[in-house]
Amino acid sequence: MKIKLHYIYIGVILLSACTTQLVVKSKQNSVVSITAIPDSIITSIINPYKIGIDSVMNEILCVSELEMTKGRPESLLGNFVTDLCLEQYSDLADICIMNNGGLRSTLPKGNVTRGDIYKLMPFDNELVVVELDEKDFEGLLEYLVSRGGEPFSGMNIVVTENEKIINHTLFREIDFSKGETIKVLTSDYLANGGDKMWFFKDKIQTKVEIKLRDAIINYCKSHKVISSKLDWRIRLVNTIK
Amino acid sequence: MKSRREFIKRATLGTTALSILPAKAFSNSKELKQLTVLHTNDMHSHIHPFTSGRNKGVGGMAQRATIIKNIREEGNQVLLLDAGDIFQGTPYFNVYGGELEFKLMSEMKYDASTIGNHDFDNGLDGLVKQLPHANFPFIVSNYDFSDTEMEGNYLKYKVFNKGGIKVGVFGIGIELEGLVSKNMYGNTLYQNPIEKSNYYADLLKNSLDCDLVICLSHLGFKYNTKKMSDKLLASQTKNIDLIIGGHTHTFLNKPVIVENLESENVQIAQVGYAGINIGRIDYFFNRKMCVKKVDGSSIFIKKT
Q1: Which pLDDT band, with edges at 50, 70 and 90, does B28 fall under?
Q2: Whose CB has fewer CB within 10 Å in chain A, the N or C terminal residue?
């Protein structure tokens, strides 16, 4: 009896070890395209929510003179968003910086609905102001250049081909030598170190008490027509003559 | 009924042990037990098919539900999983906070999900508030929520019994610092993915005797840096059979194979984002509960 149990024990070990290596087979190109009729139960759950969403999102806020897309080094959309933020809160901040990646959709030419703004800015990011000293502000400039441009407003930057900053002009003068700081308007996401904006790390944030999306919506509602232009705010120059 | 099956299983084990039959005796495909693992990731509140852009007309949760129902009607065991970032991406999230997403996933009978970085977008309280709408568990093994309101509202791992196939599932979340605002994740502590994976995979495979160990990950498929990813995780761990990933919105047509610490194959799967695709992996087990065959594909939800 003892011997039998011993055998069973060995057997269990053998059986519990699956030694065969898995090979994933697949059908042809392994993508199977299926057209499906919407499930009626799921649709019935969605419907009351959809009615609520549609009534809110179809509201026309303004008319845009042109289609605005994001991009680098500057873009119609990036300039539009950062300019409108700084314009509305110029009493609180000197410049504004956002991230290209955070602009999630193109704004159409013509009617702009609340839904369009939600597509552009689906995140519930809040506007905050962060004060930077000269060293961290230089870090911000280097960051902008190293990224090939990110949306900003309130200054101009001239850059050489090897990513060296030749010159920058702040629209509002800051005398760093007298210990003045620059007030930067941005989103809490970026101020908390998002997109590796390290110069904001561990700085005190002052809340504007508005979501970025609501700042855009407010601007659109108070301007019947909106527009944007590329103005060489970040300019690459060839220094090799 | 269960005890009888257990008895038969034990009796079979005993007989086999004494006679030591060659493995081939069981490889008759008729005797293989099939488990269908279905998975999604990064659905980002996409309730409806896309209404514009190059994905116009594709995806949709009602469409996904029909496909899943049809697969269930094939009669095999189904395990339906999500790898996180259920939240954020359409006004449905902004207005209703994820309530509808959880209700629809519950109706589709999701078995479990892990937590993605965007699932923190309304803060921990915003996530906890929506949990009553989900009748499936959230599994994450490397977030320590003990000093947060999530404590008691999530699992470190779960063993699913799918018709006698024991499937162990654990979850791995991405580092939150620099990705999510601190005020959103609060006192959540991020823990080492490799240490936690090895611990829970060993527990599931060796102590709890699972036939298949799945890691639901929101690390991302791979990076050009040393940043932790599913590929790195797979190569630096053992006892994991399948990693179902997310975060990088990577469209894999079928699972990718990576060798683990013991030179065994680990599969990594991920199906893009927004519910455009459903991942499908069919496992065929023999009577010894060893996987004899795996079939992987990606179901593209085409426009109607």
Answers
A1: low
A2: C
Partners of B87 on chain A (C-beta within 8 Å) are none
Q: Is A57's Cβ below 8 Å from some Cβ in B? A: yes
Please, which residues 157-216 of chain B have a Cβ atom closer than 8 Å to chain A?
A: 177-179, 181-183, 209
Helix (H, G, I), strand (E, B) or coil at B169: strand
How many domains is chain A built from?
1
Checking if the pLDDT of B31 tops 60, the result is: yes
Whether A192 is covered by a domain: the verdict is yes
Q: In this structure, what CATH number is given to the domain that contains residue A186?
A: 3.90.780.10
Long-range contacts of B161-166 (CB under 8 A, 24+ apart): B162/B35, B162/B77, B162/B78, B162/B79, B163/B33, B163/B35, B163/B77, B164/B5, B164/B9, B164/B33, B165/B33, B165/B35, B165/B77, B165/B211, B165/B212, B165/B283, B165/B285, B165/B289, B166/B208, B166/B209, B166/B210, B166/B211, B166/B212, B166/B289
User: Does some domain include residue A28?
Assistant: no
Cβ of residue B300 closer than 8 Å to a chain A Cβ: yes
Residue A149 lies in a domain: yes
Interface confidence, given as ipTM, is: 0.89
Ordered structural domains, chain B, with CATH:
33-300 (3.60.21.10)
Q: Do the domain assignments include residue A47?
A: no
Question: Closest approach of chain B CAs to the CA of A101, in angstroms?
Answer: 13
Contacts of B7 (CB under 8 A, 6+ apart): none
Give me the amino acid identity at A42.
Answer: I
Give the model's pLDDT for residue B109. 98
Contacts with A14 from chain B: Cβ below 8 Å? 17, 20
Q: How confident is the model at residue B56 (pLDDT cuts 50, 70, 90)?
A: confident
Quick check: B304 and A52 CB within 8 A? no
Average pLDDT over all residues of chain B: 90
Question: Which residues numbered 62-101 in A keep a CB inside 8 Å of some CB on B?
Answer: none
Residues B58-106 pLDDT 10s: 999 999 999 999 999 999 999 999 999 999 988 899 899 999 999 999 9
Whether A8 and B290 lie within 8 Å, measured CB to CB: no
Of residues B16, B121, B265, nearest to A123 (C-beta): B121
pLDDT class for A29, splitting at 50, 70, 90? low
Overall pTM > 0.80:
no
Containing structural domain, residue A168: 54-232
Which of B13, B265, B289 shows the shortest C-beta gap to A11? B13
Give B175-187 pLDDT, tens digit per residue.
Answer: 999 888 888 999 9
**Pairs across A and B, CB distance < 8 A:** 169
Nearest CA-CA distance, residue A225 and chain B, Å: 24
